[in-house]
Amino acid sequence: MASASLGNGAAGVGSSSRSAALRGHVIRTSIGGGRNGQSKQICRALAYIHNCIGICHRDIKPQNLLVNPHTHQLKLCDFGSAKVLVKGEPNVSYICSRYYRAPELIFGATEYTTAIDIWSTGCVMAELLLGQPLFPGESGVDQLVEIIKVLGTPTREEIKCMNPNYTEFKFPQIKPHPWHKVFQKRLPPEAVDLVCRFFQYSPNLRCTALEACIHPFFDELRDPSTRLPNGRPLPPLFNFKPQELSGIPPDVINRLIPEHARKQNLFMALHT
Prior knowledge:
Blueprint: E1 3-9, E2 12-17, H1 35-53, E3 65-67, E4 74-76, H2 103-106, H3 115-130, H4 140-151, H5 156-162, H6 179-183, H7 189-198, H8 209-213, H9 242-245, H10 250-256, H11 259-263, H12 266-271
Antiparallel strand pairs: 1-2, 3-4
């Protein structure tokens, strides 16, 4: 995608897309504020494509997240690798950009789930917090080494969950690296907890995108007085469409959308 540098802004270093379809701003690294809102919007976008459309993006990375540096509104783009995943049908394992590739893909799994997008989102969120990629592997094998250095060596059971056909278990026993040392700065416990939920070796143990949306890490965004670092109002975070809420229990909707936002939405007022 052709782009022109825009320089540093509240959302980090961005580029303006010359493509009419992708005009916006691309996050490369986020070193400023608004990170909670950006992470929340990524999770909401994934909840929509996973649950409403039924597709897996398969290439979540900062370059595919367009952010308006003034409003901090985020758009997920580039669906060139996206696919409807059908249980029992194989998929290519060599997918997703390396730094954001889920470990089951590195282990050669072909029957993976939308949980690979969740792992990638965790990588993006960690990058927002760190200011640099968390797992900067130079090859597929080196990528796995970078993951193990942080999460520790996966157990046989975890490897089986990632790829039942993988039979090699010759890995050095490495202990997990404490998260407070990984980030080398004080983070809210809610941030650490959410990161841990993204980074589970077993795909079925990772949180879903919807579960991430209602995580306490994002509670401050529910406060109507919360503002962006530049003093502007938050981007629209709670303007859910009926199809986004279809099948979601009322108690989850109440956690998903704060009362002040429900009062502003006629649909919500009639259905709660």
